[in-house]
Specification:
heterodimer, A: about 120 residues, mainly beta, seven-stranded mixed β-sheet, B: mainly beta, four-stranded antiparallel β-sheet, globular
């Protein structure tokens, strides 16, 4: 089954304690992305990756890091989490057809993070 | 820059009612337009899309037409069911590597 998986699904942590949220896809997609979802704001892009070792900032990258060492994995790293990073996080992937802007993005189930 | 504006919710309807969710956009180029749906406790999934002006996307009884003259992509369904209760997001893709989302509209359908 084609899917994007994220772990953990729920996480409670304290300010300053480094954490990593993993993301993996089995569709051989080149493009992967992280979003955060906050009430009234929709989804905002944090970082994206066009392929292995190629990453770039989205709209809200402050306080986050990513890496893309393998095509299937795209972890999100919070080196020193703060309460304003409490949110619902989604990983997504899509293929790169002839018209990338027409491609469907496939989303993971989400990770709900609470930073105390 | 690109932006998407959706009608604010929440929207509460009775079963078999007609649903419309308004969506307008601002884009510099010729974007593709999408509606994604998020069922409770799940990630987003594509509901329908349209890639050029006057295209109509449709799926599961939902429809939306890409109107370039009014920069709109309103979502409609003629007869909603309880199972349509979800959050609906309008989105556009113009730059090759980004989706821009609206704020989302929560729809609750009552039996």
């Amino acid at each position: 089954e084609a899917q994007v998986t994220q772990n953990p699904r729920y996480l409670i942590t304290v300010t300053g304690k480094k954490l990593t949220v993993t993301c993996s896809q089995n569709m051989n997609h080149e493009y992967m992305s992280w979003y955060r979802q906050d009430p009234g704001l929709g989804l905002r892009q944090i970082y994206y990756s066009m392929n292995v070792e190629v990453t770039d900032k989205g709209d809200v990258p402050e306080g986050y890091k990513v890496s893309r060492k393998e095509k299937r994995n795209f972890p999100l790293i919070l080196e020193s989490p703060s309460p304003n990073q409490t949110s619902l996080y989604f990983c997504a992937s899509r293929g790169t057809g002839a018209q990338p802007k027409q491609e469907t993005q496939y989303f993971g189930p989400g990770t709900r993070l609470l930073v105390l | 820059g690109n932006s998407v504006t959706q009608m604010e919710g929440p929207v509460t309807l009775s079963e078999e009612a007609f649903l419309t969710i308004n969506c307008t956009y601002t884009a510099t180029g010729y974007p593709s337009l999408f509606w994604y749906v998020q069922y409770p406790g799940e990630g987003l999934q594509l509901l329908l899309k349209a890639t050029k002006a006057d295209d109509k996307g449709s799926n599961k009884g939902f429809e939306a037409t890409y109107r370039k003259e009014t920069t709109s992509f309103h979502l409609e369904k003629g007869s909603v069911q309880v199972s349509d209760s979800a959050v609906y997001f309008c989105a556009l893709s113009d730059h090759d590597y980004k989706l821009s989302f609206g704020a989302g509209t929560t729809v609750t359908v009552r039996a």
